[in-house]
Amino acid sequence: MGLTSKLGGMGVVTVKLEDAINWSRTRAMWPMLFGLACCAIEMMSAQASNYDLSRFGMELMRPSPRQSDLMIVAGRVTRKMAPVLRQLYDQMPEPKWVLSMGDCASCGGIFNNYAIVQGVDEIVPVDVYVAGCPPRPEQLIHGIITLHERVKQERLDDWV
Amino acid sequence: MTVSEITTWQGDVEQLKGLVSERALSGETMVLNMGPQHPSTHGVLRLLLELDGENIISCVPDVGFLHTGIEKNMEAKRYEQAITMTDRMDYLSPMGNNLVYCLAMEKLIDLDVPLRAQYIRVLLAELTRINSHLVWLATHALDIGAMSVFLYCFREREKLLDIFEIVSGQRMMSTYFRPGGLWRDVPEEFEPAVRDFLDYFPGKIDDYENLLTSNPLWLDRTQGIGFLSADDAIRLGCSGPTLRGSGVNWDIRKAIPYSSYDHFDFEVPLGQHGDVYDRYIVRMKELRQSLHIVRQALDNLPGGPVRSNNRKYVPPPRSELGQSMEAVIHHFKLWTEGFRPPEGEVYVRVESPRGELGCFLASDGSPKPWRVHFRTPTFVHLSALPHMAKDHLIADLVGIIGSIDIVLGDCDR
């Protein structure tokens, strides 16, 4: 094998199946292209040249929920938007994760009123919360790495 | 559930009457839902499209997916506290929203603003306009298929956000303008940072124009698309670059100058045909004009205070608190119960990056506003969208939405 010999003839690498699956999941976790409000602009910044989210295997933002693994709820969720958001979540294939970006998505933020859902965790299960109004792109990236660390801890028998 | 059950629409046909033509009810034309989750609707806009093949027969916007209740929430806050709410309306031009709300408060209580503060406001409002236009260009080009412009625009935008962070400590939601002036004077690093940007940015506008302005693909996708005649634009209440793209010379900075815009020399770029391409050209020229205004403001920046001396409305500087009992009392009163403007109603308008942004403020003499209402350009422009989109291909709709530069936070509030 040409490639194997170039790599130093490593032969066989043994690894736990769990680790291999979790590793591959963190290296190609496609987020959904789903912006709601101000935080979506910072999410775009994180995606663009200066912060370059593709360093973490995320260069593809999928507009379709059926092709995405991670839902970044970027912005305030209104009562009118909540059923749409839940439907999008239901359309995502397993395994799926939710990252709540910003204060509005996490707890309603400064908008404690009739229109805003006080935290997106009322309608979808959230894995990681990122604080800030809006969070800096660095904060979002930190949240994503935190999520990756969590995914690496997952056990196969938890979801089989 | 069978495939035919899934693909057939389950809703009530009666609800569609009046929105779409009779042909749609009989199944001759197709009714298609676009959004609220769509990559090209710039947020959470939903459009109900009636299609004959790929041609749009009618287009009905459905807004309110981002209705935040900001106007109502502001009634529960004191006047100065409510500034933080305005940032989050049109989140691409926070300083423009701060400005219109502060101007409304200042008009209500007849508060003077020092010239230095007015100049810094103009400077930052123009930088915000550049910031907003950069996001518009990035997303508009991305929608039509030019990915690299997106990456370039966001690279330059970071430099602007750094400037906003220098003055206010926040990248986007700055809340820097306050009634009677500014939160504080600009720090030392501000001027070199802006000068760096002034030297750096003109070459970048050239880069964008090289990529797009005479690119045959870009011309094909934008010229003759989304036509809006001057009469129609006025009739539909358009303003800003959408109106000026149709050749109407109306810019509130020139027509009704506010915040000392009459001290600055700048041109109002106009389009000729009123199509997507002309609106693009107008905004690209506005980028250069905004730079021109920023340069003038920086060169002629006067000295002096940045907050009014009217202690009944503006808190005293920190340095006075240790020496003057009156200052302590004013400080305490302002931060515990806020100021009480006289009863009355005002309407103030500014030229936001998207068009005429108006603020109606009614006071009943209490420390909280009795009613705040914003006349936002995106809401008006969305009502002009069906007119522009009619008889176009569905693929062109994406370009038309991009060309009116909608921000749903601005529309729904």
Primary descriptors:
heterodimer, A: 160 residues, mainly alpha, Rossmann fold, 3-stranded parallel beta sheet, 3 strands, B: mainly alpha, Cytochrome-c3 Hydrogenase, chain B, 3-stranded antiparallel beta sheet
* Share of residues in strands of chain A: 5-15%
CATH class descriptor of the largest domain in chain B: Mainly Alpha
Secondary-structure element string of chain A: HHHEHEHEHH
Q: CATH H level of the largest domain in chain B: which superfamily?
A: Cytochrome-c3 Hydrogenase, chain B
Average pLDDT metric of chain A: 86
Q: Could you explain how this protein is built, in words?
A:
The complex is a heterodimer of chains A (160) and B (413). Chain A is mostly helical. Chain A has a single domain, classed as Rossmann fold. Helices cover 39% and strands 8% of the residues of chain A. Chain A contains 7 helices and 3 strands. Chain A starts with a helix and ends with a helix. The model of chain A has no long low-confidence stretch (mean pLDDT 86). Chain B has 413 residues and is mainly alpha-helical. Chain B has 2 domains: 3-62, no CATH class; 70-412, Cytochrome-c3 Hydrogenase, chain B (Orthogonal Bundle), CATH 1.10.645. Chain B is 48% helix and 11% strand. Chain B has helices at residues 3-7, 22-25, 70-75, 83-87, 94-109, 115-144, 147-168, 190-212, 216-222, 230-235, 241-244, 252-255, 276-299, 318-321, 325-336, 377-389, 394-403, 408-412; strands at residues 30-34, 46-52, 55-62, 177-178, 181-182, 344-352, 355-363, 371-375. In chain B, the strands form 3 sheets. Chain B has a 3-stranded antiparallel beta sheet with strand order 1-2-3. Chain B has a 3-stranded antiparallel beta sheet with strand order 6-7-8. In chain B, strand 6 and strand 7 form a beta hairpin. The radius of gyration of chain B is 23 Å and the shape is globular. The chains are: A mainly alpha (160), B mainly alpha (413). The interface between A and B is medium-sized, with 33 and 36 residues.
